[in-house]
Amino acid sequence: MFLLRRPLGHLFFAILLPSAVGWAQSGAPAPSPSAAAIMARVAALQDHSQAERARYVYVQHATVSSRRGHTIHCQEITDIRITPFASGSHEQLLDLSGRLLRKGRYLDYHSLEGEKGQPEDNDPVSIRLGDDATDRDMVENMRKNLLGTNSKDGINANLFPLTTKEQADEEFHYVGRERLNGRDVDHVAFRPRDKSDFGWKGDAYIDTVSGEPVVVSTALSRRIPAAVRVLLGTNVPGLGFTVVYAPQPDGIWFPTSFSTEFQIHVLFFFRRTILINAWNRDFEKTHVTANIVGKETRQPPTQP
Q1: Would you call 238 helix, strand, or coil by DSSP?
Q2: Cβ atoms of 222 and 198 closer than 8 Å
Q3: Mean pLDDT across 220-231
Q4: Which of 83, 136, 246, 247 has a 20 to 30 A CA-CA distance from 228?
Q5: What are the distances in angstroms from CA 170 to CA 70, 159, 164, 202, 270?
Q6: Which residue from 156, 214, 226, 146 is spatially nearest to 186, judged by alpha carbons?
Q7: Residues 269-292: what's their mean pLDDT?
Q8: What confidence tens digit (pLDDT) does each residue in 1-28 have?
Q9: Mapping DSSP to helix (H, G, I), strand (E, B) and coil, where does residue 155 land?
Q10: CB half-sphere exposure, 143, CA atoms < 13 A
Q11: How far apart are CA 42 and CA 214, in angstroms?
């Protein structure tokens, strides 16, 4: 990524400086930067940063809850070590603390549903959990689908139009220059090019110096049609996500937090609010890129 960032910075500086001097001398305000140019730079940096991100091992701390009204029906707090490699990442569950509401009381558990060989398998409480695990299924599937998707970032890459591939289906609009998280950022709004597409719309706040995203938030670009909701018996009002990014000491930017809160209506009677909050932390840079050889075999990272 550094090989690309420096030439890009010099290129933008060489192009913009003469024009800026002319605008300053004439007293005319400088025109707003192009949203397309800003996001093209973001895409180039994201495309070339993947190899650098594969050199980091980190822990993702996540809380996922299923709630109806103010009552939590299921909640899992997990610590997962993520080891990126060339085409994805390897996940190792370090700790799980879960609780499931059943018949008016909470039942605690400490392993993923369906896991064998855990101490909890002989615990009567854990055996009873299998009788009605709808909320537990939903919590674990939401974490797996939105966070554990074999991504180097610990977040489903398809949720945010940052790479060249994802940007191809989006259109962008420049909103303005703002101050966010102690940085000057360009605010760019985005939505699907195809207005009939059920894609993501939202806002990207891009650091004016590095060209890296500082905050990206998304929401569904349009509501699910009523006919589809009636046919499937499913609705997801308020579905959207927010991701915060920050640089590591060597300048490599990573997502540091992910959050969402939305509702699920299924089969006309099952209603839940899903809450997800995840933080990437305890970053350790390695000298080599891990290669996953088999399900249980991987090259351990070498500490610097």
Answers
A1: coil
A2: yes
A3: 55
A4: 136
A5: 37, 12, 10, 11, 34
A6: 214
A7: 79
A8: 323 333 323 322 222 233 333 333 445 4
A9: coil
A10: 27
A11: 11
pLDDT in tens, 31-49: 567 898 999 898 888 777 7
What does the block give as tokens for 184? 């000057």
Answer for the pair 286, 304: CB distance below 8 angstroms, yes or no.
yes
The number of beta carbons lying within 10 Å of the beta carbon of residue 34 is 12
User: In this structure, which amino acid lies at residue 218?
Assistant: T
Closest alpha carbon to 185 in 222, 215, 223, 220: 215
| Torsion over CA: 34, 39, 40, 42 (sign) | positive
Residues 6+ apart with CB under 8 A from 102: 128, 129, 131, 132
| Residues in CB range of 69: below 8 A, 6 or more apart | none
Q: What is the DSSP letter of 56?
A: E
**The whole model's pTM is what?**
0.72
More confident position, 146 or 177: 177
C-alpha to C-alpha distance for 29 and 37, rounded to whole angstroms: 19
Q: Record the tokens describing residue 38, joined without a space.
A: 């800003």
Q: What angle do CA 193, 215, 7 make, to 5 degrees?
A: 80
DSSP 104: T
φ/ψ of 45, rounded to 5, equals: -65, -40
For 15, the token pair is 């192009």
Within 10 A of 113 (CB to CB), how many other CB atoms are there? Answer: 17
